[in-house]
Design goal:
- The chain is of the alpha/beta class and 365 residues long.
- It has two domains: 198 residues, Vaccinia Virus protein VP39 (Rossmann fold, 3-Layer(aba) Sandwich), CATH 3.40.50; 93 residues, Orthogonal Bundle (DNA polymerase, domain 1), CATH 1.10.150.
- The protein is built from 16 helices and eight strands.
- Strands 3-2-1-4-5-8-7-6 form an eight-stranded mixed β-sheet.
- It starts with a helix and ends with a strand.
- The structure holds S-adenosylmethionine (SAM).
- S-adenosylmethionine (SAM) binds next to α3 and β2.
């Protein structure tokens, strides 16, 4: 009993020391800008993606390459297609390519561009072992005032993940033209903003007086729609800026994020080998709902088909063949019982991970 307690205690101490060490080194690296984006749940991602020697992975959201670097560090001869629509991430991928010649293939584009990119490389028929999506924006995008995503740092109202794409409208351009009814819909649906009508009205009134060009102008304008004692909180009851939901809605609209996710998961299914693995990290319920719906018909690992239990629940009950076929032809097998979230340690040293949800599945049909 005593020995067991000592052993538990030393395990705990080891874990604490390990977490502290990782935390300290990541904080130091981030402060010195060596890590522009701290990867979320990187050990769990690697564990589920299961890259081994000679495996091929597509990192659909390369960012600063945090997850890809971890995979390259742990496994030999892994090949990684590193996709991102942000030219800055593309440059990071090119640097990583130099460090790992023949192993990293940088690709610049959106999920919806990938089929054409692969075709232009003569690789439209590739099948890969693993695909990772770490949705949303990177810290490099959120933290740089000039990218226009930040409520707290004043910058041009841009919000394009690919900020050099002349064909994509910036958030400022959208706000200067959009119809009030459409703006209400965007704020309601993409921002889940209850005050959508009020905010849209005040944006439309303001733009007849001046051009809404900066993040500060927009943040102040939205704030003015709320009375002083209306202190907003997020889902975890922490204080939140009144414009958080408006910024989220615009960002999603500017980058067509939800349609991209929907397309991306369908594409992942097509590009994965049988038994290939899909790992997704989502950061809000709109993203997670789309992913969940695609994977919904998943079979829990280590559980018999539920149909067995149902089949014998009544002696005179039979499924019709079409339903049976549909149930048995499920595309994905979920590899864990409950959705995976970062633990308290990770949230403490990387607060941006707090709303992350990881889902890992295997293509089974
Ligand atoms: C959260 S960051 C990824 C961070 C990365 N896993 C790391 O550890 O450094 C998300 C990245 O996905 C990219 N992204 C988002 N939507 C995209 C899309 N539809 N197509 C391509 N890249 C996208 C963003 O530009 C951003 O760099």
């Amino acid at each position: 009993m005593f020995n067991k307690t000592i052993s538990n205690y030393s395990n705990l101490l080891f874990k604490l020391n390990y977490c502290n060490a990782v935390q300290k080194s990541l904080q130091i690296l981030e402060k010195t800008s060596l890590i522009p984006h701290v990867p979320v749940l990187f050990q769990t991602v690697t564990q589920y993606l299961l890259p081994g020697p000679n495996k091929t992975i597509i990192d659909m959201t390369f960012g600063a390459g945090g997850h890809s670097k971890e995979i390259l560090k742990r496994f030999e001869n892994v090949k990684i297609y590193a996709l991102d629509c942000d030219p800055i991430s593309y440059n990071y991928a090119k640097t990583l390519q130099k460090e790992h010649p023949g192993q990293v293939i940088p690709l610049l584009g959106k999920f919806s561009d990938l089929p054409l990119i692969l075709k232009s490389m003569g690789e439209e028929n590739i099948l890969v072992d693993g695909i990772l999506f770490d949705f949303g924006c990177s810290s490099m995008q959120f933290d740089k005032a000039e990218r226009g995503f930040s409520i707290s740092k004043n910058g041009p109202l841009d919000m394009r993940m690919n900020n050099v794409d002349p064909n994509q409208l910036t958030a400022g351009e959208i706000l200067s033209k959009i119809d009030e009814v459409d703006l209400i819909k965007i704020l309601k649906i993409y921002g889940e903003e209850k005050q959508a009508k009020k905010i849209a009205r005040s944006i439309v009134s303001a733009r007849s007086l001046f051009k809404i060009n900066t993040t500060k102008q927009l943040a102040d304008l939205v704030e003015s729609c709320f009375n002083d004692n209306c202190n907003r909180v997020d889902k975890l009851l922490r204080p939140a800026h009144s414009a958080t939901k408006t910024f989220q809605a615009l960002r999603i609209f500017v980058n067509n994020e939800l349609n991209e996710i929907n397309f991306g998961i369908k594409l992942a299914y097509k590009l994965l080998k049988l038994n290939g693995r899909l790992v997704t990290l989502t950061f809000h319920s709109l993203e997670d709902t789309i992913v969940k719906r695609h994977l919904q018909s998943s079979i829990l690992q280590n559980k018999k088909y539920k149909i067995d239990a149902l089949k014998y629940s009544s002696h005179d009950f039979f499924y019709d063949n079409e339903i049976l076929e549909h149930i048995l032809k499920r595309k994905w097998k979920q590899l864990h019982k409950h959705v995976i979230k970062p633990n308290e340690d990770e949230i403490n040293w990387n607060p941006r991970s707090r709303s992350a949800k990881l889902r890992a599945s295997e293509k089974v049909f």
